[in-house]
Design goal:
Blueprint lengths: L3 H12 L15 H23 L10 H13 L8 H18 L1 H4 L2 H17 L3 H35 L11 H88 L4 H30 L22 H8 L5 E8 L10 H21 L4 E9 L3 E8 L12 H12 L3 E6 L5 E8 L5
Parallel strand pairs: 1-2
Antiparallel strand pairs: 2-3, 3-5, 4-5
Helix pairs in contact: 2-3, 2-6, 4-6, 4-7, 6-8, 7-8, 8-9, 9-12, 11-12
Length: about 450
């Protein structure tokens, strides 16, 4: 069983990503790095001169140019904090030590303390090799605290000497020198701990963003594959419809041609009528075939969302009543109205158009049941043989939370309508509810 210390170290290593295979991208030195370094240097030099003017640097023996150099070189380190994070962290630690030994008042300036803090934080946040980061950061922290411990030891010796000579003046619970060193240790523990914690948080946030991006890319790829599969399924359905349309047309032509052959000698008028029917049937079959093939050739379309629906290639407007009856009463009140400008116009609709109308209503009702709060749906079919066949499905609901679809169903409606040169209007209504309306042109060749 592991000890508490081992468990803490294991948790800390996992939190810092020691065994994580992900590597944070290392950007080149960019404009933001230059702006940061230049801004820090300008503020640092201004602060240095303000402190000098207030008498805060009277005890510094180094020349002014050396003080400026110390501030400037510290600021320049920030240029490479993302590109070479561990190198910059080591150089910043060295800079702190040298400046602290030679010019402690300059090293203690807030601006330089910020530089050291950012350098160490960046080392933790941007290091690609996490094990090397732990070694480098641990070495820096141990060295700095060893330096402080040496100062603490020296401070204790001084305090003992002051006590022996009776020169010490206590004004609180702790001896003055020991208290000064102790507060220094506490401040530095917060300082270095905060830099390491901030760097770890930054690294983990970057890793999380990268994972989310990878997941988004995976989802997009999967959605693309599903879309392609939906297209294949829809095109297979269209191909089956094409087979049925052509088979029906060829059968009708065969029957009419056979009838014409039998009466050709004794009843030329009946034979002429039969051949005219053959011509009309062939033209209708060719037209429907071209439209369905056009839907197959067009760019990538989409499938309806209900992939389990039964094959209904023989369906048409006359079958809408049974379709509506299946849905009516299942939480929906569905009405169907068929408006004919000419008597029997619905029965004379081309089979491809009738099937497209049926599919449109089928898909619209499926979408209402799955994704809408509607309780009432109106289905209206209008047929004018001289102009158009139109289907309109209107509901009174709003999108239901948590049920947003892929949009494949609506795009499937659009693709089928495009195969018949139809016009599509799909979307919410200003007065509330949702509408699906498709108008198919009729005319010569239907």
């Amino acid at each position: 069983m592991s000890s508490p210390v081992e468990r803490v170290l294991t948790w800390l290593g996992a939190w810092l990503g020691v065994d994580d295979v992900w590597e944070r991208p290392r950007p080149a030195i960019g404009r933001q790095d230059v702006v940061l370094a230049a801004s820090v240097e300008a503020v640092s030099l201004l602060a240095l001169e303000l402190v000098r003017s207030s008498g805060g640097l009277d005890g510094v023996d180094a020349p002014v140019w050396a003080e400026w150099l110390a501030v400037s070189t510290g600021s320049v380190l920030l240029l490479g904090r993302r590109r070479w994070p561990l190198t910059v962290a080591l150089l910043a630690a060295l800079h702190m030590f040298v400046a602290g030994v030679t010019m402690p008042q300059v090293m203690a300036q807030v601006s330089l303390q910020i530089v050291y803090f950012v350098a160490l934080l960046s080392g933790v946040a941007w290091a690609r090799d996490r094990r090397a980061m732990v070694v480098v950061v641990s070495s820096i922290v141990l060295f700095m605290f060893a330096w402080l411990t040496w100062q603490f030891t020296l401070g204790s010796a001084v305090q003992d000497w002051l006590d022996e000579e009776d020169l010490s003046t206590d004004v609180g619970f702790f001896p003055p020198v020991t208290a000064a060193i102790a507060i220094t240790l506490l401040v530095n523990a917060i300082y270095f701990g905060g830099a390491i914690a901030g760097g770890g948080v930054s690294w983990r946030a970057a890793r999380q963003r990268a994972r989310l991006q990878d997941q988004a890319a995976t989802i997009a790829a999967q959605a693309g594959r599903l879309r392609e599969q939906a297209v294949i399924d829809e095109r297979l359905r269209i191909a089956r419809d094409l087979h049925d349309v052509v088979a029906h047309g060829v059968s009708a032509m065969g029957i009419q041609a056979g009838a014409a052959r039998r009466v050709l000698d004794r009843d030329p008028d009946a034979a002429r009528t039969a051949l005219a029917n053959v011509e009309e049937a062939s033209r209708d079959a060719v037209t429907q075939m071209r439209r369905l093939l056009g839907a197959l050739r067009e760019g990538v379309g989409e499938d309806a969302e209900d992939g389990s629906r039964a094959r209904t290639s023989e369906a048409g407007v006359s079958d809408l009543a049974s379709l509506v009856a299946e849905v009516d009463g299942q939480g929906l009140a569905v009405t169907l109205d068929v408006v004919e400008e000419q008597d029997g116009a619905v029965a004379r609709l081309p089979r491809g158009i009738g099937l497209a109308v049926y599919r449109t209503v089928q898909e619209a009702l499926t979408n209402v049941r799955r994704h809408s709060t509607a309780d009432t749906v109106s289905v209206v079919v209008r047929v004018d043989e001289r102009a158009y066949a139109e289907v309109e499905v209107v509901d009174n609901g709003r999108p239901r939370r948590g049920t947003s679809g892929s949009g494949l169903g609506q795009l499937g409606i659009r693709e089928r309508a495009a195969g018949h040169e139809g016009q599509v209007d799909i979307g919410p209504r200003v007065t509330g509810g949702y509408r699906v309306r498709v108008r198919y042109p009729l005319g010569a060749g239907g």
